[in-house]
Structure formats: structure tokens, C-alpha cells
Amino acid sequence: MVEVTNELMTEILKSLQQRISNIELLGVEQAQGMNAIRGYAGSIQADTTNIYGVLSRIDQRLDRIERRLELREMAEPGTPYSPNA
Questions:
Q1: Is pTM beyond 0.85 here?
Q2: Cβ neighbours of residue 72 under 8 Å, at least 6 residues apart?
Q3: H or E stretch including 14?
């Protein structure tokens, strides 16, 4: 059987220490990656909210335009306004 010496134990412990350091580094990199993904998700959510705001304003403008056309239709004699025409 192999005799365990202090030098052998020291080498094994150094190797383990290096491997643990590498694992810790990977953990830090993973955490940074997750933070980046969280940032991207927040940006996407903000962009989506802005798009919904723009669509809402466009919808309101379209409603006002349709109301004006209906008012004009009532004021003018002739063929009525038809949105499908």
C-alpha cells in the first residue's frame, strides 16, 4: 500500500484548493450571467409597456377620428360613412 506522506497530502490539498477556486469562479460567472439576463428581461418588459402605451394612444386617436366622421355624417346630407367601403 502507498505510504501517505506530508508532501503527498500537501499536493492533494493544493489540487483540491485549486479545483474549489475554479468552482467558485464558475459560480461568480453564473451569477453575473443571471444578472445580465435579469437586465435584459427588465428591458424587454419596459419596451413592451412602451409599445402598449403607443398602441393605446393610437386606439384613442382612432376612436376620436371615427367619432368625427360619424358627426360629419350626421351633419352632411348624402351617403353615410361606411368604414367597410
A1: no
A2: 81
A3: helix 6-75
List Cβ neighbours of 81 (8 Å cut-off, separation of 6 or more).
69, 70, 72, 73
**Element containing residue 1 per DSSP (H, E):** none
Instruction: Give the model confidence (pLDDT) of 32-83 as tens digits.
Output: 999 999 999 999 999 999 999 999 999 999 999 999 988 877 777 766 666 6
CA distance 52 to 64: 18
The CA–CA distances, whole Å, from 12 to 19, 20, 24 equal: 11, 12, 18
At residue 1, does pLDDT exceed 60?
no
